[in-house]
Amino acid sequence: MNNYDFLELLVSHSGLYLFILLMTGSVYFILLRRIIKTPIDPLFLVIVSTIFGCADVIFMYATNAINIYYFSSFLLTQFAFILGFFSLHSFEHKRIVIASAKRRYPSLELTNINFLVLIGLYVIIQLFVYWKNGIPLFYESRLDYYEGGSGFGIFSRILDVLSLFVCCMLIEWKVMKKLNNVPFLLIWVGGGFFYFLTLILSGSKGSIFTILFIVFAYYYVSANIEQILCIWRKYRMLLIIGGLGIVLVIISIQSIVNKQQDSSSLILLGYRFIASGDIYWYTYPNSVLLTYPASVGGGMLTLFNDFLGLFRLIDWNSFPEYPGVYFYKYHHASDLTQGANMRHNIFGLLYFGYIGSIFYSMLLGILGSFIRFFLPRIQGGGFYFKFICIYFFLKVGVIDADMTLFMTCVDNLALVLPMIFIFNAFINTFFLYSNFNVFKHNNTLLQR
Q1: Among 71, 73, 159, 364, which is disulfide-ready with 61 (CB 3.0 to 4.6 Å)?
Q2: For residues 356 and 204, which has the higher predicted lDDT (pLDDT)?
Q3: 402 phi and psi, to 5 degrees?
Q4: What are 111's strand-pairing partners?
Q5: Quick one: DSSP state of residue 111?
């Protein structure tokens, strides 16, 4: 079933789809009402996407578009994932304290100098990428932005981690009340504005919400969630109106680029939510899933293809076509780099079979539970560890959508964060043993 077939089916049974959507949303609301307390929780949009995906599958079964085999597989894997996700929920309100090192290493501290240099480095790299490849907002397909096979994609990895690291330092600087003079205040404002501008230029319609997700993640990891909830309640109307305004501006610009009417862009925005389950209608009807040559070994290769390709352990051209791309092209003729996310239900069933997919989904649910509930409660690890918790906290929803993308995020962090750590240590060591000894002036940003 291709996109047009599904939309035709949906239009002819729109009342049934809306009823299923409401019922599915009600079930998830009951299950997660004690976990997700605000729309600025990064998990909120993930659950909205999941609700639409579930509604798509139930709708297809209700209209006899798929058989009981695939429907039962979906229900069992979804239940297993949810069960795994709740496995460590009891740790959410606990604190796991680890002993901090008694000896201090000044060269490993984060200082104002680190912050100034990292902001400068981030701005330079981002401007270079814009100069080299243009602005993503004006691309017809943003997925092609880092394509080309020339190694330019390394900048995508660097910016994925470095931009968030700088943003977290901006928040930390504000929270720790280190804006004690005009020059630093101006740099803080300029850095924050530049980061927000890059989000808009990325073409992301949820730019302002990305900032809110990061702020929420910071306070959640800092075990201070009530403060961010108070801020949200106080400014939510302003943020919602501002966010919708930015969405409309981005839609208008992309409509001009793609030569579409604004109304059609709004329809496409709504379609994106419905298409959260596109991989289901690509694979379940008519057993299209079975047309892809798959094995357990192939599943492991696909799962770790980013790591293997990144370090050139296997040549990128040697990997089989990504299943999400294969299933999209099975139904739609296209030369563009695009495809569906391989949700855990599909990935597990494709590579590990009916029973294996249930255990696979449960393991992913437990991983998500560890990242969401256990990891942020570990206290005493310093800013670098806090950043790791924030990074994974923001990426936890990717586990449900596409585990291969989550593995790419893991690779990005493993590659770039050590670079940032070594770079900061080098900068601090240079100033520590030079005439510009910032440590003598109590400029340490993060005291632990």
Answers
A1: 71
A2: 356
A3: -165, 105
A4: 444
A5: B
